[in-house]
Amino acid sequence: MRLRWYVDRIRRMSLGEILSRAGVALQQRYWSRASRRPNGLGRVLPGRREAAVALERHPIEAPAVVVAADRLMAGQWPLFHLRPALIGEQPDWFRDPASGIASAPHTYAFAVPYREEAAVGNAKYVWELSRHQATTVLAAAWWLTGDDRYAERVRMHLTGWWNDNPFLCGIHWTGGIEAGLRLISWVWIRALLADWSGVRSLFDDNDAFVGQLYRHLLYIRRLHSRGSSSNNHLIAELAGVVAACAAFPWFHETAGWDAWAQAGLATQAEAQTHSDGFNREQASDYHLFVFEILAGTALASRLAGRPALDRVENVMRRMADALACSLDATGRPPRFGDGDDGRGVLLDAPETPAEAIVLDVAGAMAGPIEWWPEAEATLLGTVARLVCPAALPRQRARRSFFPDAGMTLLRAGAGADEIYVRCDAGPHGYLSIAAHGHADALSIEARHGGVDILSDPGTYCYHGEPEWRSYFRGTLGHNTLEVGGQDQARSGGPFLWLDRPATELIEQRVEEPLLCWSACHHGYRRRAAGVTHYRRVQLDPDRRALTLEDWIDADSAHPVALAFHFGPAVTAELAGSAVRLRWPGFSGRLVLADGLSWRLHRGELDPPLGWYSPGFGQRVPAWTLIGRGRLPPATRLSTVLHFPPSTKVSAECESVNAAS
């Protein structure tokens, strides 16, 4: 199985990428002997070392940040499904808090089997704390309060990590993204602690830090992500180098590293963002993650007094505009593709929604748009307001169609009455492996007043549980049509797709009185006798009805499964040819298509079916409806979701009844 994966993976690479990766392998082999690894402080420039980024104390009210820091002082931190994870005053940087398994600290990094949970635990949980974003919150608490307990705990965390993680020893040196995110965190920790009496002894005059800084920069420059892996990992790596070179310009190589990283970051930010503003990975969570990375780096560069990263900031404006356009009435973004709850930089409490930070920072850096939803004040946004010149509001209408991302929003009503429908005719993902995309072509989300009625179930896991990974990223795990018991795309591993279904938008109308969208995809053409799936969606605001029509273009009938995943707040009851739906304060009805045999599922394990993942590492039972049968060519399956009457209409009816 492992050999097959390598063969499939190589087939997704160009010759140039293969040669480049061979060079990386040679570098890793050369460094495998401890005597050959760089040591000391690197090539330090003469003169006194002093950080170039600093923030004056800013004692504003941010109680959530202080509460989060106090929890961390008590040895607790929210870590995926562990809320809280018990990590102690000084974390064991090699122990997975979920399983209790610890990896060997002094194993050569590229010999660590980080995908094998039995050996190292869940690597995601181990890596997360070593991004030092929790430690950044401690520094933010000091910046707000001046309480030296927070700064001393920062010293404990960082000194312990630097001492426990020599270059290329252990699991924390296995990936460049981790090194890049650590660099961003160190820059912000140093800036937030600039007025603390112990800051120079912890950073500028500390040879342990200077050595770690040099080796992190060298690692990324030599081993950065390449070719088909050049997704958000490469952005994090380049951003880490840009931020660190701005803050700590201490080495002979700094100017060269900085020029390389600045040019690469601007190029990658543009390449990985559609012209309509959405991230090309086709994963809404990574859209937010990348924005935070770019924000942390762009603001650090401004703090250092350097010219603004104009190309990067222009991409950030597009990303923020796209996000603001796509929010529902409650401020929630759409949900599609992979998500692992990663943060690019964290000054705020970990519970602060990433979308709130994006809107607040973008409003400070670029100016809000009149129709933007009101954003709560965040600490990162506060910093942006301190270091960015006042921005003029941009005049731009709110969009509901994003042609490059293939997303169309059908919206009617407002507030608690809003009907929000996301229709997906986008590309499968980014680059040849489409690592974070899902097999979800023509899927929809439907919400009522911000409540998921037809939901995107989420991600749940990456490594260690292949059956669950396959379910949450597969076609049957989305609100679309599965043909022949197969996904729309062939999977070659948890982050590898072997082909990519092509989609075509046929029609879209996003203005009332009648909103509609239709599209098709060709993912089954090669594997299911040339089948093309067509879908048409129509939203009638007056009838409060959403109609879905599905059909196939094929030579013969094919077995199909039509899936509807209800949100975790929805209860479902099958009643003849319809399903009664209830959610807090409301009820609705799904009228089922003829010709299929319908069955409700909830919390099933063998195989997985009827689950919703509210966050990485979390899953809860939720109702899923599956209709199965054989679908002849051109036969239309018509399904109608009836939403409750608007509160305005209900109030008018009550008034008429009372009068009569």
Features:
disordered C terminus; 5-stranded antiparallel β-sheet; 35% helix; 660 residues; alpha+beta; Beta-galactosidase, Chain A, domain 5; 8-stranded antiparallel β-sheet; single chain
What does this structure look like?
The chain is an alpha+beta fold and 660 residues long. It has 3 domains: 35 residues, no CATH class; 336 residues, Glycosyltransferase (Alpha/alpha barrel); 245 residues, Beta-galactosidase, Chain A, domain 5 (Distorted Sandwich), CATH 2.70.98.70. It is 35% helix and 20% strand. The chain contains 18 helices and 25 strands. The strands form 7 sheets. It has an 8-stranded antiparallel sheet with strand order 11-12-13-14-25-18-17-16, with no helix packed on it. A 5-stranded antiparallel sheet has the order 3-4-5-6-7, with no helix packed on it. The longest helix is centred in the middle third of the chain and has 20 residues. It is globular and about 80 Å long. The chain starts with a helix and ends with a helix.
Which helices and strands occur, and which strands form pairs?
Blueprint: H1 2-11, H2 15-31, H3 63-73, E1 76-79, E2 82-86, H4 117-120, H5 123-129, H6 133-145, H7 148-164, H8 176-192, H9 199-202, H10 207-223, H11 232-247, H12 254-271, H13 284-303, H14 310-326, H15 354-366, H16 379-387, E3 401-402, E4 407-412, E5 419-424, E6 444-448, E7 451-454, H17 466-473, E8 481-483, E9 491-493, E10 496-497, E11 503-509, E12 515-524, E13 531-540, E14 545-553, E15 558-565, E16 571-575, E17 578-583, E18 586-591, E19 597-602, E20 604-605, E21 608-609, E22 611-612, E23 620-621, E24 623-631, E25 637-642, H18 647-659
Antiparallel strand pairs: 1-2, 3-4, 4-5, 5-6, 6-7, 8-15, 9-10, 11-12, 12-13, 13-14, 14-25, 15-24, 16-17, 17-18, 18-25, 19-24, 20-21, 22-23
Helix pairs in contact: 3-6, 6-7, 6-8, 8-10, 8-11, 8-13, 10-11, 11-12, 11-13, 13-14, 13-15, 13-16, 14-15, 15-16
